[in-house]
Amino acid sequence: MNLQERDRAVNWHPYTQMKTAEDAIPIVKGSGIYLYDEDGKKYIDAVASWWVTLHGHANPYIAQRVSEQLNTLEQVIFAGFTHEPAIQLSENLLKLLPENQEKVFYSDNGSTAVEVALKMCIQFWHNQGKEKTKILAFKEAYHGDTFGAMSVSGRSVWTKPFGEMLFEVIFIDPPTSGNIEDLKIIIKNHSEEIACFIYEPLIQGAAGMLMHKAEDLSELMKFCREKGILMIQDEVFTGFGRTGKLFAANYLSEKPDIMCFSKGLTGGTMPMGITTSSQQIFDAFLSEDKYKTLFHGHSFTANPLACTAALASMELLLKEETLEKINLISQKHFNFSQVLKNHPKIENVRQTGTIIAWEIKNDEKTSYFNEIGKVLYREFLKRGIIMRPLGNVMYLVPPYCITPEKLDFVYRNILEVLDSFSN
């Protein structure tokens, strides 16, 4: 049997209706912006493999650092023990975050980073004898697929089978200059019961790259602070340069109490999640009472290999040449957005940093299940480009190592495909 047949026999793929899905494309090698299938065809990974691969595939520097660590220490229990890569990673990351972020808790992916944050907030109040358990979140949010993360994500067909098992959440629209006073009224009316506000800053990725303004979010955060509501900033997607700055936090005038990271954290090399917190959050768990402990952990908490990959990725990220590439991609995306705005088949063009998105006009309702997404996906694969439309929402989130020439190649193909749909 070939790889596709063997895969079909044993594997269950994510977000995939296995009965009707086409066979998965077997990838045998990655290098820079390219992935290579078993027939030798190469594809530009224009979505950074679910937004994680910051510096390209099989980055030699990250690989070298992980290889060296593999021959030193591959794993150690993180309860009662520690190690240099975890200490160094925490030190380096905290230097880049808002100054109130002072402690690091390790987990293994974005969903669990969010779970940890939610537990921190609810237990923060519980440890003080206050039962504040309601969560405030944005409509159409996406924070992961574990039960807590699903609960604070927008209700949809994705969560419907589990609806009665998800805890109650107060959902509000993302802030705009036109609705923010109404949002404040909702928050004020529930402030005594709200434990925390969790949000994706600036960009709601899985919802279709929906974007809101930093000044509006800052104003909403300030109001939550005045009402004593803790804030969880989910930077799983927006962190590590995606918005054009190191973190979405760099656009905001207000500081969250807790932050969540994953995806680009290790440059896409290994799975890891991080939840950082303020000293105030941490101190609420310090007690002679052992029952006030944060009872959360993972077998691979602070895995030395993943910590090393994250350290190497962060070193690459902070290089002047990488920051220049991020600025270049951001500028080229902006220029391309102006072209897209004039296309008759396009609407709602938006761009923040290295993220650009737009919608295809068609008769179907805008949604993840819009069939045009599948058509577009196949068409770009034929052209050697991996794009994964969210229904009729198309977007680019390229690795930072992509060259201006290859970006132009992707742009040209996008316009050609759009023009073919216009005819």
Entry keywords:
alpha/beta; Aspartate Aminotransferase, domain 2; Aspartate Aminotransferase, domain 1; 7-stranded mixed beta sheet; 423 residues; 4-stranded mixed beta sheet; globular; 17% strand; 16 strands; 2 domains
What is the class of the largest domain in the CATH system? Alpha Beta
**SS summary, helix count:** 13
What is the 3D shape? globular
Q: What low-confidence regions span 5 or more consecutive residues with pLDDT below 50?
A: none
The CATH topology of the largest domain: Aspartate Aminotransferase, domain 2
Major sheet, described briefly?
Answer: 7 strands, mixed
What's the CATH H-level homologous superfamily of the largest domain? Type I PLP-dependent aspartate aminotransferase-like (Major domain)
Second rung of CATH, namely the architecture of the largest domain: 3-Layer(aba) Sandwich
User: In what range is the share of β-strand residues?
Assistant: 15-25%
Function: Catalyzes the transfer of the alpha-amino group from S-adenosyl-L-methionine (SAM) to 7-keto-8-aminopelargonic acid (KAPA) to form 7,8-diaminopelargonic acid (DAPA). It is the only aminotransferase known to utilize SAM as an amino donor.
Modified residues (N6-(pyridoxal phosphate)lysine): 263
Subunit structure: Homodimer.
Protein name: Adenosylmethionine-8-amino-7-oxononanoate aminotransferase
